[in-house]
Design a protein that fits this description.
Elements: E1 3-10, E2 18-25, H1 31-38, E3 49-52, E4 68-78, E5 86-89, E6 95-98, E7 103-112, H2 123-133, E8 146-157, E9 168-169, E10 173-175, E11 178-180, H3 200-212, E12 217-222, E13 228-236, H4 238-257, E14 262-264, E15 279-284, H5 293-304, H6 308-313, E16 337-339, E17 346-348, H7 350-355, E18 360-362, H8 371-394
Helix pairs in contact: 2-8, 3-4
């Protein structure tokens, strides 16, 4: 038996990009191999690994420089790209499953410096530390906030691969007369049929792969712009939801390799009268989920209204191109909220209003946002504002 591990991490780009490389374990490592075989989902059993940080913008390059960075496993799932179920048909026509010979895992990692301290690009550790400070970790699961993501993305192709051009959404073309755009928006959202949607094969394969490894994807739909899709994930605890979102993005990018296209997460993938791409986040706390929770949501919205700049700063690169006040967005310069609105910063769903409890939706994060930073900033606003108020009242 061998264990095939695909180590995945976030690099030093802005926005951060996903990197990965393969580690293969065999019986030569003895006890570690046996422990992993017995407990394949115990993330603490998987070994740390190193990589060349100078090639990922995470360490200095140059003569005599220590360019190593350390990968520390924090999240484990089966590898849907390498798991190939093996079946055998008996003479009577019945099919039996044959156990897989090897173990295949995706190993999502945090990045550390050689001295054991978290790397400055390690935003997951920043969120982890805040959750520990607020006592909102897995030990206090009943008190933990929930985050659910609505990840929009655009399927695109590049006229010149490996260049800095952003890519052209599927359904848009260039010919001798220049850019040829599809008909205006209107028929594409949740559309069906050859003339209304494009790229569904990749979308369905992504859904199947994520579901196969137990990522909590709960929905998929075509979006307003042709070539744009969305999947919903969660709700889950802050770290779990963020880890799953990054791994689901990794699977998307890997799939694009075999389909001759790219996954464009730019908040405004196409200029003109076309919708942008967001990563709306649905948030609830222990208090908002209880009877009378709507009042707590209104209080939270009041806190958010005073922290617009702090949130926008971590809600995605070039998000200003999307948050214009048009195409179902709020203006980046103004905070707003409403009941079931889609042109405001915050939307309170109709179900939450009817029940008097539930969750609210922050529609500001762009498709390329870092979920760890979104969660951190949201929790810092909700809970640390409360701590500040208590401190002021005591003084």
């Amino acid at each position: 038996m061998k264990i095939f591990l695909e180590y995945i991490w976030l690099d030093g780009n802005q926005p951060q990009q996903l990197r990965s490389k393969t580690k293969i374990l065999n019986n030569n490592i003895g006890d570690t191999m046996k422990k992993i075989v017995d407990q394949p989902n115990n993330v603490n059993l998987y070994p740390s690994w190193s990589f060349d940080g100078s090639s990922t913008k995470q360490s200095k390059a140059g003569k005599g420089e220590n360019t190593d960075c350390i990968l520390k496993p924090v999240f484990i799932k089966d590898d849907p790209f390498r798991i190939v179920p093996t079946e055998s048909t008996l003479s009577g026509g019945d099919t039996i499953s044959i156990p897989l010979k090897h173990i295949y895992k995706l190993v999502f990692c945090e990045v550390y410096n050689p001295n054991g301290t978290p790397h400055k690009t390690n935003t997951r550790f920043k969120l982890f530390t805040l959750l520990e400070d607020l006592k909102l970790n897995e030990k206090n699961i009943n008190k933990t906030p929930w985050f659910g993501w609505e990840q929009e993305y655009t399927l695109a192709y590049k006229l010149r691969p490996f260049t800095n051009e952003p890519g052209l959404p599927l359904g848009f073309n260039f010919n001798q007369n220049g850019l040829q755009e599809p008909r205006k928006q209107g028929d594409y959202y949740c559309g069906t049929g050859f003339d209304n949607v494009i790229g569904r094969n990749l979308v369905e394969l992504h859904l199947k792969m994520c579901s196969e490894i137990d990522l909590d994807i709960v929905g998929v739909n075509a979006e307003v712009m042709l070539g744009q899709w969305e999947y919903q994930l969660g709700p889950l605890t802050p770290l779990e939801s963020s880890d799953q979102l990054w791994v689901s993005r990794y699977i998307l990018h890997r799939l694009s390799e075999n389909h001759g296209m790219i996954i464009n997460l730019r908040p405004k993938p196409m200029t003109g009268d076309w919708n942008g791409a967001g990563c709306h986040v649905n948030v609830s706390t222990k208090e908002t989920r209880k009877r009378g929770g709507l009042n707590h949501i209104i209080e939270i919205i009041g806190k958010l209204s005073t922290k617009q700049e702090e949130h926008i700063k971590v809600y995605g690169e070039k998000n200003d191109e999307r948050l214009t006040g048009e195409h179902e967005t709020a203006s980046i310069d103004e905070f707003s909220w409403g009941w079931s609105t889609r042109d405001t910063s915050i939307r309170i769903p109709i179900k939450t209003k009817e029940d008097g409890k539930g969750y609210f939706e922050d529609r500001r994060p762009g498709a390329n946002c870092d979920p760890y930073l979104v969660c951190y900033t949201m929790l810092d606003t909700i809970y640390n504002t409360i701590l500040e108020e208590v401190t002021e009242s005591v003084n």
